[in-house]
Amino acid sequence: MSRRLRLWILTVGGLGFAILFTAACLRLPDFGGNSHPYGDRAVGAALAHHTANVVSAVNFDQRAFDTLGEETILFAAVLGTVVLLRQTRDERQVRPTPAQISVPIRRYALTMLPVTLLVGLYVVVHGQLSPGGGFQGGVVAATALHLLYIGADYRALERIRPVGLYEIGDAVGEGAYLVLGIAGLLGGSAFLANTLIPYGTFNTLASGGFVPLLNAAVGMEVACAVVVLLAGFLDQAVEIEKEAGT
């Protein structure tokens, strides 16, 4: 495809988007109005399914299919990064040089590691009750592991970060979300419909029906994906060198 043709395609696509975006903006309600039909319906639907956190109800119940798309984008991005950053023929792997970490930084990082990990898991588990959820908690949990890189060295991080297991966890988290969606179809309802299991008691960990299960699947996928993603970049920065003369 020539450069001229690519520019024409970009121009036509951009023009179409501009027209649709402008038309949508013209139909928006006035700023600061008293009518919030979407918010009212979202809150009502969340309460009907015993989900205290309305945002999680929107993400994993009312618009669960959209969340599947977001999760799949992350999954595909990590997969593409792993493929692009794989070791090539003109590269070799070397042992990283032990880092000299000051005592205060080491103590702080090692103290905060279990705290951060616990906070991340808490945010995931309580996603249907309080602000947060699988996406936010997954990132926090993955960040906790990398405090070991700051507080110790890269070899210490490698011992608690077998990349192969996290790649499996990434795939399992993505697959679990799909399986839960298919379960809705097998149960005679719609894909990802929150109808198969009881909604539980409002404002408890077991409330929300499918919401905590989908939330946990996303938390697992996001945490593992971030670990695999950072592993690819850290390997390039710390362990991979080009052969001499290349």
From TrEMBL:
Residues 106-227 form the Na+/H+ antiporter MnhB subunit-related protein domain. It holds the Pfam family MbhE. Residues 12-99 form the MrpA C-terminal/MbhE domain. Signal peptide: none annotated. Keywords: Cell membrane, Membrane, Transmembrane, Transmembrane helix. The chain crosses the membrane at residues 7-29, 72-88, 108-129, 135-154, 175-193, 213-234. The keyword Transmembrane helix applies. It is found in: Cell membrane. The keyword Transmembrane applies. It is a multi-pass membrane protein. Belongs to the CPA3 antiporters (TC 2.A.63) subunit B family. This is Multicomponent Na+:H+ antiporter subunit B. It comes from Streptomyces umbrinus.
